[in-house]
Specification:
homodimer, 206 residues, TIM Barrel, eight-stranded parallel β-barrel, 10 helices, one-carbon metabolism (chains A, B)
Chain lengths: 206, 206
């Protein structure tokens, strides 16, 4: 199981300070959507140069122009780029095509998707990494639960990531479902001792 | 009826060259999603400083973190920011709240939305500017048609924008539906004579 740390709502320099503290415990570094929109893909490039051994996830949240935006992220150094599950299917297929050609990967963000048929359609279209995701704004009215995990149960050759307000207390409930990637944001980036927080969480998921 | 020119897949300098050519004919300047992700919101700031008299639309395509991303765009100088209609309803409400407080506006992008109930829900949540939008990737299999316009027919106090591969040939069919904003991208930005193309289109919509 991999630990992905999500960098969001942070100034440029802090993104690097955080990763320098937690690099021994994290596998995937995520540049969050807000950070990309604030600074552009230049921060993806600099992060990949600084930590080439880490898997770099660009949370592009692509909705349209799949080929163009995927290339934008991959050319900057991303290993994985996100597309919204509710984007037009053609957009998702285009993202997967561009990523496959570059031997990179697309993570499909399931924000707002609640029906199994849609997920099966995504998998048939080539999606092999799905992110169960309760957005920041939705977290106000409840987090991920067993119902979300049932959406992806029993799918073949599909990896899953989970994201949405995960911290040390809520983590054990997620671990029961054996996702492939655990995505943690503020429970690491806003911790008093980030290095310790990341180490503890990494220890829990091993 | 307003003419909005969409700047997408253009280098930073070209965005300004294009606007300098077409400024007499366009009302709204849109910084496209790809441009924002490539360069960050700094280009919104520079565009607003260069053309303060124009309405500046940041096509942020917000999916989550509505308050944060709306503030990011508005603080940079945007007058209107887009949110995806398929984002969680809480996200859309948050965007509208932040925009209203700043006396700015949210454009809800209806990409992928095909049911009237969803649109009525958006309007009840405070959406007052809806964008009928066939994405770049969807355009391969067909453009906007009368069925799309029926989605927004008869709604009170709601303005509509239309986007998706509109050019001089296809424009008359859109004009019949009397939208408030016509969004044109490559038919202006890739025209041999951009100034003339913008002038012709502006003349057609008046």
């Amino acid at each position: 199981m991999k630990l992905q740390v999500a960098l969001d709502r942070l100034p440029w320099d802090d993104c690097f300070t955080v990763i320098e503290s937690v690099k021994d415990s994290v596998d995937f570094i995520e540049i969050g959507t807000g950070v990309i929109k604030e600074f552009g893909v230049g921060i993806i490039k600099e992060m990949k140069q600084a930590y080439p051994e880490k898997t770099l996830v660009a949370d592009m949240k692509i909705c349209d122009a799949g080929k163009h935006e995927t290339a934008l992220a991959l050319d900057a150094g991303a290993d994985i780029t996100t597309v919204m599950g509710f984007a037009p299917l053609q957009t998702i297929k285009d993202c997967i095509e561009v990523a496959n050609q570059a031997d990179k990967q697309i993570m499909v963000d399931l924000l707002g998707i609640r029906n199994r048929e849609k997920i099966e359609e995504l998998v048939e279209s080539g999606a092999d990494l799905l992110s169960l995701h309760i957005g920041k704004d939705e977290q106000k009215s409840g987090g991920l639960d067993a119902e979300h995990f049932r959406l992806v149960e029993g799918l073949n050759d599909v990896q899953t990531a989970v994201a949405g307000g995960i911290n040390q207390d809520s983590l054990p409930a997620f671990l029961e479902h054996r996702p492939d990637v655990i995505i943690v944001g503020s429970a690491i980036t806003k911790a008093k001792n980030r290095k310790e927080a990341a180490k503890t969480i990494k220890g829990m998921i091993k």
